[in-house]
From TrEMBL:
EC supergroup of this enzyme: isomerase
Keywords assigned: Gluconeogenesis, Glycolysis, Isomerase, Transferase
Keyword Hydrolase: no
Protein name per the record: Glucose-6-phosphate isomerase
Entry-linked CDD domains: SIS_PGI_1 (cd05015)
Biological processes annotated in GO: gluconeogenesis; glucose 6-phosphate metabolic process; glycolytic process
Pathway field: Carbohydrate degradation; glycolysis; D-glyceraldehyde 3-phosphate and glycerone phosphate from D-glucose: step 2/4
Length: 554
């Protein structure tokens, strides 16, 4: 049976009864009201509640509270517009970069306003690719970090600061910072005479910060109507005050939560092209909030829609359409999936701008899912481990003994390692392609092809993330979530390296240490991982790897 709730249509099959019961229970317990009242018992029985709980609920008020800042942001955006900047380059990771990237990719920059580029990779080729796209003298840099200490962000800053210093006597006039009050980044920004510092509310965690200055200052800079966005988000916030069965956030949470508890934990996003960028933001929200203590929801983003035979019964499909339907071809596939018993949650958006209120609805849903699954939805306990191990790997950077990546040139060893992996595949597993490679379109296309190959050979869910970007998104889930990840970590040997000014390391050393650190953290957490070095020629390496995967299946 299909349930319709506002612009949501849910085909829930055998799970419908449990979901309905959950909603009734939540209504009786006044869950919506208790979340808004910031009642810690929603998530914990502990007194006092654990850290990062009651002091991380500021996102509830952003749609209203941020309205007071709109004029200031608009005036600033007009100033930048009037000065003829062609690009704004955002330097940041995870919660500080994903929402702005989604905004640029979904809405574009208004005529005459700068185009927003995001740098969230420490691969030297990625840094160079940004440098090659911009005219330094007409570029504004946005250094964005809640903590103000993230190594990637500060390294990017150092690199572009030094370039800018050679181009102008007043480099600070080309930099702004977005950060919490009193962070080392704020100090740095004052010391280097940044043009502006925008402070964000400290009681909002990174992945819940899209509607704070982290998302909205960059949005204003590309010419978005952020006042209207806050209005739309405010309407959704009001809807999320309603009793559970009419509450868009709680309906999503009950549906997803009950199906995850029944083993369908691969939340697979299918979108209309107009909103194709949106799931990259949802991915961090869901994976980092819920993937801990051996539990979690695995977001599957960017995987081509297949036939029933491509999937096992661990999937929930979430479809974002503009209007009621996708293309006839994709609708036919969805109908086949529905017939095969897969649950489908459809969100029929009136237009692309509707992703803004959806952001609020999904934040509310994620907070409620934390309660349902019994995890703390606002911390990220396993991210630190990879950071610490990366730091250790930096110290041992010169020691090749320490590098256990298999070379793609030793193809037999690679096949053997893949064979072990293939033999270990069990129902409910997923392949996580972790590519510490240049995030360039041709490489991404080859990785997508490899991913498709893996899905059809192994019939498991597949995810793809570029490192170190994914460390701040799905990284928490990989380490803290269920032991169902099979991680294929891919590294390369960059042809050109870049020194990070004011430090004693290069970008190639940093990304290599991050990859090693994460591999070690994954092993310590009991996940399966194979590391493969594709050498200098990544495309050739990927072709060889696809061949090796097929061999391993024989
Ligand atoms: O904004 P910051 O402090 O630089 O952090 C970036 C990202 O790193 C994390 O803290 C951990 O991966 C994310 O939660 C966050 O969005």
């Amino acid at each position: 049976m299909t349930l319709t709730k506002g612009s949501m249509r849910l085909t829930l099959g055998v799970y419908e009864r449990a979901i309905q019961q959950r909603l009734n229970e939540w209504e009786a317990q006044n869950l919506a009201g208790r979340i808004w009242q910031r009642d810690a018992t929603v998530w914990t029985a502990q007194t006092p509640p654990p850290p990062e709980l009651l002091d991380r609920l500021g996102w509830l008020d952003l749609p209203v509270e941020m309205r007071a800042h709109v004029d200031e942001w608009r005036t600033f955006a007009e100033e930048i517009h009037a000065e003829g900047f062609t690009h704004a380059v955002l330097l940041g990771m995870g919660g500080s970069s994903l929402a702005p990237e989604v905004f640029q990719q979904t809405f574009g920059n208004r005529n005459g306003y700068p185009e927003l580029l995001v740098l969230d990779s420490t691969h030297p080729d990625a840094v160079r690719a940004i440098e090659n796209q911009i005219d330094l003298t007409r570029t504004l840099f946005i250094v964005s970090s809640k903590s103000g200490t993230t190594i990637e962000t500060i390294s990017f800053f150092r690199y572009f600061w030094h370039l800018m210093r050679e181009a102008t006597d007043t480099p600070g006039s080309r930099f702004i910072a977005i950060t919490d009050p009193g962070t080392p980044l704020e100090e740095l920004a004052h010391a280097r005479h940044f043009r502006r510092v925008f402070n964000a509310p400290p009681d909002v965690g990174g992945r819940y910060s899209a509607l704070s200055p982290f998302g909205l200052v960059p949005a204003a800079l590309i010419g978005a109507d952020v006042a209207h966005w806050l209005q739309l988000a405010g309407d959704m916030a009001d809807a999320c005050r309603l009793p559970a069965s009419q509450n868009p956030g709680l309906v999503l949470a009950a549906a997803i939560g009950e199906m995850v508890r029944a083993g369908r934990d691969k939340l697979t996003f299918i979108t209309a092209p107009e909103v194709a960028a949106f799931p990259a933001w949802l991915e961090q929200l869901i994976a980092e909030s819920l993937g801990k203590e051996g539990k979690g929801v695995v977001p599957v983003v960017g995987e081509v829609l297949g036939e029933p035979g491509d999937y096992s019964n661990d999937r929930i499909f979430v479809v974002f359409s503009i209007g009621e339907t996708l293309t006839p071809d994709r609708e036919a596939r969805l109908a086949a999936l529905e017939k095969a018993g897969h649950p489908i949650i459809r969100l029929m958006l009136p237009n692309a701008e509707a992703i803004i209120p959806e952001m609020f609805a999904w934040e509310f849903a994620t907070a409620a899912l934390g309660a349902l699954l019994g995890v703390h939805p606002f911390n990220q306990p396993d991210v630190q481990l990879a950071k610490d191990l990366a730091r250790r790997a930096m110290k041992n950077a010169a020691d090749p003994q320490d590098d256990d990546a298999l070379s793609i040139e030793n193809i037999d060893t690679v096949i053997e390692a893949l064979r072990d992996v293939v033999e270990s595949v069990a129902p409910g597993d997923y392949i996580a392609l972790q590519a510490f490679l240049p995030p360039l379109p041709d490489i991404e296309a080859s990785l997508q092809a490899l991913r498709l190959e893996a899905r059809s050979l192994l019939r498991v869910a597949t995810t793809l993330g570029f490192g170190p970007r994914f460390l701040h998104s799905t990284g928490q889930l990989h380490k803290g979530g269920p032991k169902t990840a099979i991680c294929l970590q891919l590294v390369d040997a960059p042809m050109v390296d870049l020194l990070v000014p004011e430090t004693d390391y290069t970008f190639a050393q940093l990304i290599a240490a991050q990859a090693r650190g994460d591999a070690e953290a994954l092993r310590q957490r009991g996940q399966r991982i194979v590391r493969i070095n594709l050498g200098h020629d990544v495309q050739n390496g990927l072709t060889a790897l696809a061949g090796a995967l097929n061999e391993a299946m024989l």
